[in-house]
Amino acid sequence: MTTTGAHQEAAGATTRGWWWWGRRRSAVLDVTLGSVSALECAAEGVEFADYASLPVPVGVVFGLLAGSVLVVRRRWPIAVVLVSIAITPAEMGYLMAIVGLYTLAASEVPRRIIAALAGMSLVAVLIVTYVRVQQDIASADFDPGPWYVPLMAVFLSLGVNGPPVFLGLYIGARRRLMESLRERADSLEQELSLLADRAEQRAQMARTEERTRIAREMHDVVAHRVSLMVVHAAALQAVAVKDPQKAVRNAALVGDMGRQALTELREMLGVLRAGDRAPARETVPLAAVGRAAAAVASAAGAGEVPGVEDGPCLDAVAELVEQSRQAGMVVELLVMGEARSYGPRVESTAYRVVQEGLTNVHKHAAGAKVVVRLAHRGDEVAMQVENGPSDGKAADAGLPSGGNGLVGMRERVTALGGVFVSGPTDDGGFKVSAVLPVEAA
User: Fold this and answer.
1) 3 state DSSP class of 344
2) Separation of CA 159 from chain center
3) Distance of CA 13 to the CA centre of its chain
4) CA–CA distances in Å: residue 382 to residues 340, 419, 422, 426
5) Is there a contact between 194 and 128 (Cβ–Cβ < 8 Å)?
6) From edge to edge, which strands make up the β-sheet containing 330-336?
7) What is the pLDDT of residues 196-239, one digit of tens each?
8) Nearest 5°: phi and psi at 309?
9) Would you tell me which CATH number, out of the four given (3.30.565.10, 1.20.1640.10, 3.90.226.10, 3.40.50.2300), belongs to the domain 310-441?
10) Main-chain phi, psi angles of 180, to 5 degrees
11) How many CB atoms lie within 10 A of CB 140?
């Protein structure tokens, strides 16, 4: 049973009418001790009544009332000890004194109060024992020496008061230590639960980021290639009868683009299958799970997923532009600055931005003139795809749009700390611009 359950059980027992006792056996024990103490004091009250020249029933009733105070030892331990000290001159309540001092020492009463009451009880027992032993020696006409009476008084008083006090202090310290350990265990259990929840959240975030990344890659691979294939297929249909040679060239281009799309898809699916075939590892601690999930989430958010091959680079932009030209688009490529190599993520992101920009022109601005600008600067690389207004005479290929192209480009650029801007131009066209820091490489 946990500590919380024990507290709830104790609270439930209190509301059921067990007064200050948390458990049934505690109440039974205290009532039993109180009854034994009352009988002891009643028996000793007979001798006290005879010694004090009182009626015997008075001494018995007094002993019963005084001894029964031990029942409340858990609720009022100070009162029990005070009563035992008060009836010590009557040579009554030895059980009450021993049990009361133990309960007081084991309770949460301040140490100075425990020391004061234990000292009072020690002095009371010492005085009563001294007087009683001296009277017994005098009546027996026996002279053991001057040290016998005080030595016996000290031994008896220490024997009655010392063991219960020290035992109570030990039990109280042990009880507080156990409560502290239980609280610490509960705290650790809560922390582990929080770590498990956080690890699950981070794992879920990592899975979400990974699904988003895969969807973005699939969109980049499929959308551009298939868009060009649809455009070439439309051109093939238009010139099949009039110009067979051009139709053959368009058919060859469609085949090449289809093969390229299939190759890229196979590479991506191969990475996914390799991840599925990864061997299961042994269970690790929750803290390590949390750190691993955080690392996976960070890597997935930045696009650094182990096992994923480097994407296309900026050197392939010219080929990308040429493919659009072969599809009938009027495209101009302007490169400013000295071309150099960058990190794989920077080059792949720059390539995808240009690719998606050209794909959007194929989808939404058939026949429009396009200018692709690529600028190599000191600490950044910039790219821009700008198209003019759509040519109304050009046939629309009827390409579907999922509306996620611009969102994917923005996610890619901002993940590398870059800036992404898109929107219509003054002449009725559309412009997509991105700037990537070189440090991101």
Assistant:
1) helix
2) 54
3) 34
4) 13, 9, 13, 21
5) no
6) 330-336, 369-376, 380-387, 430-437, 419-424
7) 999 999 998 988 887 777 777 776 666 666 777 777 676 666 66
8) -70, 155
9) 3.30.565.10
10) -65, -40
11) 9
Q: 285-302 burial string, b = 16+ CB within 10 Å, else e?
A: ebeebbeebbebbeebbe
pLDDT the model gives residue 266: 72
Q: Is the pLDDT of residue 178 over 60?
A: yes
What the block records as the tokens of 75 is 């609720």
- Which of 62, 65, 72 shows the shortest CA–CA distance to 99? 72
Question: pTM value?
Answer: 0.46
CB neighbours of 262 closer than 8 A, spacing ≥ 6?
none
Distance of CA 319 to the CA centre of its chain: 50
Written as six digits, the tokens of 436 are: 């990537």
| pLDDT recorded at residue 395 | 52
Q: What is the DSSP string of 192-243?
A: HHHHHHHHHHHHHHHHHHHHHHHHHHHHHHHHHHHHHHHHHHHHHHHHTTT-
List the domain boundaries for the chain: 3-144, 310-441
CB 260 within 8 A of CB 225: yes
Write out the E strands in 130-206: none
Cα distance between residue 36 and residue 268, in whole Å:
85
